[in-house]
Amino acid sequence: MTAALLSSDALPASAQAPQELPPIIVQGATLDAPKLLAQTPAPPPQAQSPRRAPSPSTATQAPPKAAPPTAPAAAQPAPSAPTATASSAATGPVEPLPEPGGIPAANTGTSLSVITAADLKSQQVRNAAEALRSLPGVSVNRTGGAAGLTQLRIRGAEANQTLVLIDGIEANSGTDGEFDFSDLSAEDIERIEILRGPQSGLYGSNALGGVVNIITKGGRGPLTIAGSAEGGSLRTRDYTARVSGGNDRGNVSIGVHRRESDGFNVATARNPDLLGFRDTDSAALTSFSLKAGGQIAKDASFDVILRNVAKSGGRDGFGGVTGQLATAIDDPSRFSSNIWLVGVNVRWDMLDGALTHMLRANRNSTRRTDDDRGAFPFRSDNTSETDKVGYVATYRFALPLMSTAKHSISGLVEKEFETFKPRSDFTTGEDFRRSRVGTVAEYRGEFADRLFVTGTVRRDYNDSFADFTTWRSTASLKLPEVALRPHGSVGTGVKYPSFFEQFGFIPGFFLPNPNLRPETSFGWDAGVEFTLLRDRATLDVTYFRANLENRIVALGFPTNLTNDPGEATRQGVEVAGKYRLSPALSLGVSYTYLDARDGNGLREVRRAPHGGRVDATYGFDAGRGTFNVAAAYNGRSDDTAFRLGIDPNFGGTTFTPERVKLDDYLLLSIAAAYRIQPGVELFGRVENLANQRYQEVFGYQTAGATAFAGVRFTHQDKPLDGAAGK
Fold this sequence. Notes:
Elements: E1 25-26, H1 56-59, H2 86-90, E2 103-104, E3 112-116, H3 117-123, H4 129-132, E4 138-142, E5 150-154, E6 162-166, E7 169-170, E8 189-196, H5 200-203, E9 210-216, E10 221-232, E11 236-247, E12 250-261, E13 283-297, E14 300-314, E15 317-319, E16 327-329, E17 334-350, E18 355-372, E19 378-399, E20 402-424, E21 432-447, E22 451-462, E23 468-477, E24 484-495, H6 499-503, E25 510-511, E26 519-532, E27 537-548, E28 552-555, E29 559-563, E30 568-580, E31 585-597, E32 610-620, E33 625-634, E34 637-646, E35 653-662, E36 665-677, E37 680-687, E38 706-716
Parallel strand pairs: 6-9, 25-29
Antiparallel strand pairs: 1-2, 3-8, 4-5, 6-7, 8-9, 10-11, 10-38, 11-12, 12-13, 13-14, 14-17, 15-16, 17-18, 18-19, 19-20, 20-21, 21-22, 22-23, 23-24, 24-26, 26-27, 27-30, 28-29, 30-31, 31-32, 32-33, 33-36, 34-35, 36-37, 37-38
């Protein structure tokens, strides 16, 4: 397991075994996601047991059992999951049941990190980007306040080279190819998986640097009604409500989240054109989610996903005094965004689970508006829509003469339609469209429960670019005799130009280029995971290297886009460790060294060579309370600034780029929660405890120390019959 964060299990601290780390289950690393029955938390181990027996979440993850030579191998049925015992239920509500699917992280050669709902809860974060900050190979940059553009980069790749999936639906905006992580509320997240390295062989475009795979909470489990209210610094108000319940025959989860904040002054300078004006860049975010599923027939099931995120707020302008570097300046400008994600999946298992068919259809509609009320008023309204329909088939089998080997072959065919609708004071109202057909073939093999290999190849047939082939291969080898697990991966990536890069337009600032070529990459990594102290600790060390060709770069001002003929390189080392010091105390650490260079050999901007994180979580009072301390370090990095000038020929403002340094910073946070009675929990946290003054993007201030506190209510009915898949 390579997850850098570790929190208490869903069980009370007193029920946690001191000898073993909790298992991590991965859903996003392969097309083949074996169907698993949902689990309730395991009962506490008996006091006389020196070691914890395998939990249901471990037992049901066994690969398919080999069938007799005359028949295909069928997936091994999962044993019935035990229900929560009275002793565990007395300490609080039963945790939501995990969604079916997934493979143990140790069974894949992909370099990955996993953040669980328990991690998010122990840190009390409201935006998931804060939990991702400084994980191995991950850097986060935010432009100002909590609603400001928040970019995530993996192994030095650009933000629009990271694919973000939410319940299998691509969440990246079709306009610029990015996902703004300020839109990602942590309230309904079950698990986040960060897959590092080129993943286009499986996922296609946007996965050139890596994938962030987000699984939200489902409805399997007893009928539960939950809500929370929080307030704190910057006049922040935060409210959540959720209702969920059901079993394999039918289940639903519905949640809402509202967050408002008066914000703080992001600008580093007053606006010379708006003397006396000063704002605090307030913002509001509302999210709604619905996740439902059930059985159509004995071996057929469906699930439906509906998600909406609406955000609005104030933003600053960009300028300053002639002769100085441009910074954020006070400005009454406003922005808003609205994202709809819709998905439907139908699954049909045959041959006792050996053959699986899946039909899926999803839609991403992202609308972003900006009302510039500065010296040069300008309004833009860009909408992107992406529709996908696909069919996946997986066949699992064993050969008669190799009973210890298990295999699966998967195939995917999907059709993708993209539409870009730019609207502004200077556009003609023309819509732009493109489409592609993607085909994927994947092989996954397991040999003697020691060697695990995958091979994937993808072919995209494009109507706007040349057809493209990408591939990926991984391997993981378990050596329990010496407590080692070597792992590695190699593959290629592609990133098609975004609609805005091809057809977007900002007069005086940005000119598109419809003739841009796709960016391409080849990358590999190799690492070793060590298991230490009788399974109480793991340490993973991975070296990675990748190149980038046809990099899309901006030249001059107004910005002109072109493909760089040079080759950018990214290489480095990732270290991730976990250690359960006691049944109640766990520790997670990570460190990344990154050397990312552009085609001219210069360091890539906003990519610190050094970064790291330490998390410690302590459970006390028989699991009623938790205390978390986190420290995230971001080293000194480069950025691009613009010096303001006057054009001698035309008299207009000029912006001359130059390199600047961003200082390093260390962000400390503490969080605590305590269940005062069944169903009622108090919680609080302090962010930027040391009141660090720093900039993640040149010219944009960040908040100082802030504190928040609230209360969480949960009412839970009796477990529904069949909630555990019975």
